[in-house]
């Protein structure tokens, strides 16, 4: 078999072309935009399929330069940390902390269910974790990050990336499907009092309004934001290597240290009144990093290996979907107040509990367009889904790994 190797520059070109292909298809195929399938996922899966056909029928294998992969992943998680403003906690009030506890419980259940089913089927327990909270509540970015960990020593799970991407994509679609019906069921079953004002705009959450106030992205501001990300990468990688050398028997993936560095840096600068992090700019850098990272990860997956794991993956994901529905109805709704806000929160939880915060926002927007605005839900869900879930999820995942 002939192998064609792509260097750094040609690999970067392919990654960008994958994103452009995904953006083009998303703009033309309504079902893709309806369920908020990321452009990197659409373009990456198609690219992986084309590369597979080239290998099967043309006897040609493509090899890409992976030097950008880890820095892009770490930059994304660093941006999540830099956006974690602890002063925002007071906006959510008591219900925010209740919701945090609720979603943390689901993380544990998702992993327990995933590992339990994978073990019962005689499969690697890592399949259960990857199809558990890693991708269900973590999404594509967290899935690909942990897949890199599981693909290396001491786990050496060759199909980790394929499982993670399949599970994350499935969760993204299902999360967008079940959210609205769950909220509607709760509203009708409990005859909830709704605001009834359907004319109020719900397109921009309250928590994002300040982020979109007029503040120009300039050369200096861009360099400042880039410097913050660079510090997070430098410190995070150094701390991860240092702890690994100590051989304490307990460690976290490097991206977790970068995320925590971002959290500490952001809130320290704010408390000392040294620098105000430009959220919109940092978010933009993080989103671009994630898109490029996912483009590389998805165009590199082995679809043949994924097909061999289809049965155990689907079995786990089917049960995860049922768990999410029942958890949203009987736990999220009840503990968050059993009112209209709780119903909207349940719809949002279905969104990011199965894959991504944008899906959660779309779910809540759909409910609010029919029944009226829930300001509480639009404050709490972005705060929890954007960064707090990643911090708690990392701790939960590492706890389960310590059991094996």
Automatic annotation (TrEMBL):
InterPro entries (alphabetical): GltS (IPR004445)
Family (UniProt): Belongs to the glutamate:Na(+) symporter (ESS) (TC 2.A.27) family.
Assigned keywords, A-Z: Amino-acid transport, Cell membrane, Ion transport, Membrane, Sodium, Sodium transport, Symport, Transmembrane, Transmembrane helix, Transport
Transmembrane regions listed in the UniProt entry: 6-25, 37-57, 72-89, 96-121, 163-187, 222-240, 252-272, 284-303, 309-333, 377-401
PANTHER family for this protein: SLR0625 PROTEIN, SODIUM_GLUTAMATE SYMPORTER
Membrane topology: Multi-pass membrane protein
Localization per Swiss-Prot or TrEMBL: Cell membrane
Pfam families given in the database record: Glt_symporter
Main location as per UniProt: membrane
Name of protein: Sodium/glutamate symporter
Lineage of the organism: Bacteria, Pseudomonadati, Campylobacterota, Epsilonproteobacteria, Campylobacterales
Primary role: Catalyzes the sodium-dependent transport of glutamate.
Record carries keyword ATP-binding: no
